[in-house]
Model the fold of this input.
Amino acid sequence: MLICVYLCFHAFFGFIKEGKDVYVYFNNDANGYAVINAKELMKIVSVK
Done:
């Protein structure tokens, strides 16, 4: 699942570099991966 987070980040990185706001929504499943993926994405973009 985390590979998907990295691929998503690279897909919208250009928007971030342009100073645009980017909103990401994760569809949660029974295992709660949305929370894990959101935390991983926050690490990648250094959002605290």
User: Anything to note?
Assistant: Residues 28 and 35 are 8 Å apart (CA to CA). The first helix runs from residue 2 to 17.
